[in-house]
Structure formats: structure tokens, C-alpha cells
Write a structure and sequence with these properties.
Blueprint lengths: L10 E6 L3 H16 L3 E6 L6 H6 L4 H14 L22 E2 H7 L25 H14 L3 H16 L32 H8 L1 H14 L1
Parallel strand pairs: 1-2
Antiparallel strand pairs: 2-3
Length: 219
Amino acid sequence: MHVNLPQCQAHLTVAMDGDEAGHKAGFTLAARAYSQGFKVFMIQAHHGSDFNHFLFNFKDKKMKQDVQYNNENSSVNNTDNNNDTVSLKDHACLQAIPYEQALQQVGWGELKPINTALLPVEPFAPEQMPLTLRRYIYDVADSQQSPVNFVAVSALCGLAALIGNGVRIAPKQYSNDWKIVPNLWGVIIGQPSAKKTPAMQAALAPLYVFQNEWYQEWR
């Protein structure tokens, strides 16, 4: 799932129950929010207790007010507050700590960026296409002002669908007992408004004509 976040960074405080299930669910939620760009803070209730019960059932009313004030004002709204020395298990103050610091306290260490090992995609070469199809593809791409590879993928897959199983390949050099149908699967990947759909529709326009004619005959 891709989410476009606004320029301002949103804050999220994850309040965990003081048991294994609450700890696991809290860090799972925090990881998802952190990956989407949220500024995440963590709070954990006393061991074995429910966070709501732990927060709202203090015998000392003043302590309850102090906890609520620390949670609502000091830890989230005041980003200049120094909480580097606060422990996730320091239940006396219930001061939220940053997600990165909480990970270090539970033994995860520092977050490291995920680097992809995929090689860059080679640019589309006109020589890869048959001459007749190449002229058609470049004509469509020029009229649509869309990337040539968008049109090429659409045209090749459309042509393969039209041929269907009318053409088969015998991979063995000296035997015809094994034949396969060369089905093609294609996908167009691009940013929004990159003219993926217009390029595909323009490349498949001749097939749409046949499709409409055959549909009228069928009716």
C-alpha cells in the first residue's frame, strides 16, 4: 500500500499494555506507522497491567494528572524536550520515548536503510522490435507523447492475444512431440499521469475495432 503523506509530519503515540501481546502489537503498529513517515513515540504500562487501567485508576489523583500532562504535552507536542535518558520500562513517569530509542532498548539496535540489490532496467531499444511493428509503435508514441516502451508492451501483448494458440513453438531441435504456446504477460509501471492508460488504449485501438465488429455479429 502506498500512502501520500502531507508535508507536515504527523505524530503518533503508541500506548502498549504491559504484557507480551501488547508489546508485540504495539511495536507492529509502530513499525507500520514509522514506515509511512509518522513521528512515533512509545509508552508501556506496568508489567501485567492494561494501559487504560494503569493510566486512569491511580489512587493518587495528582499522579494521574501528572501522567496525563506528560503524555499529552511534554513528550509529543514539545519536540525539544530531552527524553534521551528515559527508559521504556520507567513506569514512574510514563514519558513517551521515540520509536528509534525504544528499538534500541529492546535490543533491535539502530535502524538501517534497506538497499535494493536489483539492477537498473535497461532502456528500450528500437532494434528489439520487428520493423513493421516498430514503425507503428513509434507513430503511436509520437501522437500520444507517451514513452515508447509503454506502447511497445501494450502492442506486443495485444498481438500475442490475437495470435493465441494459432502459433506454437517446438523447443526441441529434433523432436516435435513437445510444443508450447508463447503467451505473453506485460505490465506498465509508471507514476500517476504518466500516460499509461492512453498509451495502452492507443496501441490496442486496432483490436478494439475488431472486437466491436465481432460483438455486433455475435448479437
